[in-house]
Amino acid sequence: MIKEEIKKIIEKVIKGEVLNFSVETSSHADYSSNVALILAKKENKNPRETAELIKTEIEKQKNKLFSKIEVVNGFINFYLSEKYLKEQVQKVLKGKEKFGSSNIGKKQKINVEFISANPTGPLTLGNGRGGFGGDVLAKVLEKAGYKVSREYYINDIGAQITKLGHSVIGDEEAVYSGKYIEDLRKEIVGLPKSYNFKAEEIGEKAGKIILEKMIKPSVKRMGIKFDTWFSETTLYKNGVVDKTIAELTKKGFAYESEGALWFKSSELGDDKDRVLIREDGVKTYFASDIAYLRNKFERGFDKLIIFLGADHYGYVARLKAACQALGYNKENVDAIVLQLVKLFENGKEVRMSKRTGIYVTIDELIDEVGLDVARFFFLQRSLNTHFNFDMDLAKEKSDKNPVFKVQYAYARINSIFAKSKIKAKTNNLDLLKEQSELELIKQLIRFPEIIGDSANDYQLQRLPNYAIELADSFHKFYEKCRVVTEDKKLTEARLSLILATKIVLENALKLMGISTPKELKRNEAK
RNA sequence: GCCCUCGUCGUUCAACGGAUAGGACGGAAGUUUCCUAAACUUUAAAUGGAGGUUCGAUUCCUCCCGAGGGCACCA
Predict the structure, then answer these.
(1) In CA terms, which of A116, A239, A253, A327 is 20 to 30 Å from A345?
(2) What's the number of CA atoms in the CB half-sphere (13 Å) around residue A213?
(3) Residues 449-488 of A with CB under 7 A from strand B
(4) Cα–Cα distance between A93 and A99 in angstroms, integer?
């Protein structure tokens, strides 16, 4: 990664100084660093002079990375040399689908748990946000050198399931409604009327059907493949919950009060203690969640990432407390909190709820706008911003979704190759001298940085934004430079450039789980 | 009441404490004898308010205003 290379060069110059300076792509140059501003402040010197000093030292090294280094307002601006840029094109071509991969993860095992919706109804919009986010984060981490496992936790036991049972039976304790509940009633309860239904059993059956017939197919349509579907029930069957509670008790983190067993989470950063076993002897979901946490670490994961809805926010402190109590490092658990998606219809907010039966399912969304648009749509938004969704607007705008701009760039490249009789050759890359050509190369080499940054801070909206910028650079190049011309050598060089672009576009789109159509039909409506 | 998240062009989203706040849609004006005009070029338009820290704040801190979400022996 270039940022890292430049950083190393600077660090060498400023020697032992430990500074928190940055090197970033910049609108003023190819890369810029604020190192002088920070160093000068520390040493109480003039930033401009400090910058000049650093610049002179770097120039002495005669590094072939740069064509020019300049100092402006105390910033040090770096311009990459053409020679270096052309080497990078070769690197992309050589790297192919591996271009962008890195080893920052050092093969650490990460468990990414996401969606994990209760099997009490279909997946909805909110699950789409977490679903696509989790899947893409997993892909990013894989590309960054982690060993990733995608996991779905199924809450297939307990109060929710009993309530589901009541709903299917249709008694007065019913909470869920909707057509699928009626269908389940027909399927499970059957015609011969009997009044001996046990809500728990019915709920369990219904949950299984919902999982298999509704959730799993939706997940598949979303383009997501889980490595593990983890059933909460197994934690009870295998005695993990009891073992975990016993361990907490033994370590002095659990105590009895008012007939219940409590976890001393308040001693470990939570605002209050939490119940593990209720007065009536029933273990809480939190108890099995701790068991699940322990189970994940016991399976050998170095790091856990858990996607949570904003309505489960309070959970984070509890889980981290549990982590510490069990002797694991709480830093190895990252919770990603998703803000809720609000549904709007005709300009008015509609409260989504599986209980009232008012919601938009993920299947409906994909039916309406297609998977590519749906994915891009969600990925463009930061996970922790509030999100208003209007299906009518989404439908109306789906034709104008920027994902097509990206796919169109890809299609244009394929079209050129389909028509060209000449093959790409890299021996004359020196002929690439146009501004738009060099700009395009600069975009290509940002890709590994985009992945590295996203793997570190989980800010996935960076990916679609980058894809758009890359497509833009390509389209500008396309307008400016004709690829296939009479000049054979130039044609070969430009074909190499667009081949490299194709590789990066394809890698970027695949990372987002978006298709790479070889051609895009012209929009009839337009 | 306490805690968390969010407030950016008309709309919807971007911007590790950096330079002239970026894109998309919508608005205005253009570009096609030539590899797909779902493209390109030009243009108007925004940081909720008040303080503070800093060489420098959309970003960090405090208060206020507004939206959402938590504060269960529910999940």
Answers:
(1) A116
(2) 13
(3) 457, 459, 461-462, 465, 468, 471-472, 475-476, 478-479, 481-484
(4) 8
Q: How far is the CA of A348 from the C1' of B9 (A)?
A: 23
- Helices (H) and strands (E) counted in chain A, each on its own, are 21, 15
- Find the DSSP H helices in A103-239: 125-143, 159-169, 179-184, 199-209, 216-221, 232-237
Strand B atom within 7 Å of A415 CB = yes
CB burial class (10 A; 0-12, 13-18, 19+) of residue A194? exposed
Calculate the angstrom distance between C1' of B14 and CA of A386: 15
Q: What is the mean pLDDT of each run of 10 residues along chain A (526 residues)?
A: 86 76 85 89 84 91 88 90 92 95 94 95 91 96 96 94 91 88 86 68 94 96 97 95 95 93 91 92 93 96 94 88 93 91 78 78 92 93 88 86 94 94 90 91 92 92 94 94 93 96 96 94 52
Residue A462: per-residue pLDDT: 93
Tell me how far CA of residue A82 lies from CA of A4, A373, A503, A523, in angstroms.
19, 37, 21, 38
Number of Cβ within 10 Å of residue A277's Cβ equals 20
Residue A395 amino acid letter: K
- The nucleotide whose C1' lies nearest the CA of A381 is B13
DSSP per-residue string spanning A444-498: HTTHHHHHHHHHHH--TTHHHHHHHHHHHHHHHHHHH--SS-S-HHHHHHHHHHH
Q: Measured CA to C1', what is the nucleotide nearest A315?
A: B70
A362 neighbors A330 (Cβ within 8 angstroms): no
Which residue's CA shows the smallest distance to C1' of B12? Answer: A388
Residue A525's pLDDT is: 39
Please compute Rg for chain A using Cα positions: 28
The interface pTM score, or ipTM, of the predicted complex is 0.93
Question: Cβ distance A54 to A36 under 8 Å?
Answer: yes
* CB-CB contact of A154 with A288 (8 Å): no
Domains of chain A, first to last:
2-80 (3.30.1360.70), 86-100+402-511 (1.10.730.10)
Q: Tokens in use for A292? A: 């699940």
Write down which residues 296-355 in A have CB closer than 7 A to strand B: 310-315, 337, 339-340, 342
Q: What is the pLDDT of residue A523?
A: 54
At A526, the amino acid letter reads K
A417 CA – B14 C1', rounded, Å: 33
Q: What is the pLDDT of residue A177?
A: 86
CB of A137 within 8 A of CB of A305?
yes
Nearest nt by C1' to A383 Cα: B5
3-state secondary structure of A98: helix
| Burial bucket for residue A103 (CB in 10 Å: 0-12, 13-18, 19+) | exposed
